[in-house]
Amino acid sequence: MSKDVLDGVRDLLPMFRERADEGESARQVPDASVKALEATGFFRMLQPQRYGGLEADPIDFFTAVKEIASADGSTGWISSVLGVHPWQVALFPDEAQQAVWGSDPDTRLSSSYAPTGKAVLTEGGYQLSGKWSFSSGSAHASWVLLGGLVFNEDGNVVDFKTFLVPRDKYEIVDVWNVVGLRGTGSNDIVVEETFIPDAFTLSMSDTGRCYGPGQEVNTSNLYKLPFHSLFTTTITTPIVGMATGAYAEHVEMQQKRVRAAYLGEKASSDPFAAVRIARAGSEIDAAWALLMQNIRDEQALVERGEQIPLQLRLKVRRDQVLGTQRAIDAIDELFEASGGRALAEGTYLQRAWRDAHAGRVHAANDPERALKMFGDLEFGHKIDPGMY
């Protein structure tokens, strides 16, 4: 089944590339593109079979994301983000899963996990309110996953949870005026005080230990992987895809390019140009190979019924943030060597350069924190709970 999805996605790549300018102008990926992607089954790849999903290998999911981003960064970005959310919903109590997919298995969700909202304990659930930023693809979703700190009656923080909120309980505020990833429509979400039942919440302390109530009904090993391993890879994968697309366009451009300033020399005959693509290609390949191998290593442990050690989880984060950096370094090198024509509107290369640098500022790509956690563990220091 995953092969059918991948084949369907590949058939759509020329269309995604053709619509990239349209998405930038509208500051939203076109609805038609999302619907076409939906028809391939892509958004069901990590969804439970009980609700029409494929429970696919996450490697296949990330491969599809990389290919989409190689055609258009914004489409790849929202595909990755919207596509991974069914995995988390599968960890919620089944009552919440039924609410999301019971009447429509094609329901999509956006998110904003930074705990900028406030949740107050009340009978049977929580009173949630606040404003959240950067909810990518929110226009294409009818639910949202929001991070929030939970306060007790004394005003003390007692938990950090994800809250599942239906579309009629939140407002999307159009604020997305940016230079990169313009088509992602990563707008603000505002919730006036509203009641969220306990069954529609998921504690981050549970997901941190690879647990969720939904595992009682969704027993696949897919749902036993670490939250932060999957979700941070979700952020780096489209950036690697952008680098892949940038590489392909650079090679094509250089094969046709004649350098007037160098007496008509063909750019592809420049030995330094050959060195640059070798270096850039290696960086892209290394980023992708490490990302996927680490996920495979975690899968192998889960399949054997073994606990995933903290060292491997921090290795995932180490190679994830460095994977982003490798991809961006490759794009920078290719862009700088492409000549003035790469600056033209409509070229993939200049858009990939802007989109990748926009994706770089995502919290999941904060390299120092991830690298420090890995180094501290290697030196035998205590690691505080964080994004691992």
Oligomeric form: single chain
CATH class of the largest domain: Mainly Alpha
CATH superfamily (homologous) name of the largest domain: Butyryl-CoA Dehydrogenase, subunit A, domain 3
Number of individual domains: 3
Largest sheet: 7 strands, mixed
Helix % is 40-55%
Assign the structural class, choosing from mainly alpha, mainly beta, alpha/beta, alpha+beta, or little secondary structure.
Answer: alpha+beta
Q: What's the order of the H and E elements?
A: HHHHHHEEEEEEEHHEEHHHH
Q: Gap between N and C termini, in Å?
A: 31 Å
Mean pLDDT: 94
Strand content: 15-25%
| DSSP, total strands | 9
Strand order of the largest sheet: 5-6-2-1-3-4-7
CATH topology name of the largest domain, in short, is: Butyryl-CoA Dehydrogenase, subunit A, domain 3
Helical segment count: 12
At CATH's second level, what is the architecture of the largest domain?
Answer: Up-down Bundle
Shape: globular
Compute the CA-based radius of gyration.
21 Å
Low-confidence stretches: none
